[in-house]
Amino acid sequence: MQTIVASSCLGMNHALFSRRVFDVVIVDEGSQVLQPACLAPLYAAHRFVLVGDPRQLPPVVQSKEAR
pLDDT in tens for each of the 67 residues of the chain? Predict the structure, then answer.
């Protein structure tokens, strides 16, 4: 039996997730989440999947130079 755990990227900083490693982490809205917020779940995974849909919201770009 597989266990599924759901959280936001920032919620992964909760003590409940400390010392916890997951087989797979799926990050939805990969183009919307800022990279620093995405690091905690990615470090807690053996494998990860970033999911994004370019036809929904545009990517978040904070750098004026990158725009």
Answer: 788 888 888 888 888 888 889 999 998 887 778 888 888 888 889 999 988 877 777 777 777 776 6
Domain of residue 32 covers 1-67
Which long-range CB contacts under 8 A does 20-27 form with residues at least 24 apart? 20/44, 21/45, 21/46, 22/46, 23/47, 24/48, 24/49, 25/49, 26/51, 27/51
Joined tokens for residue 39 = 């690091």
Number of domains in the chain: 1
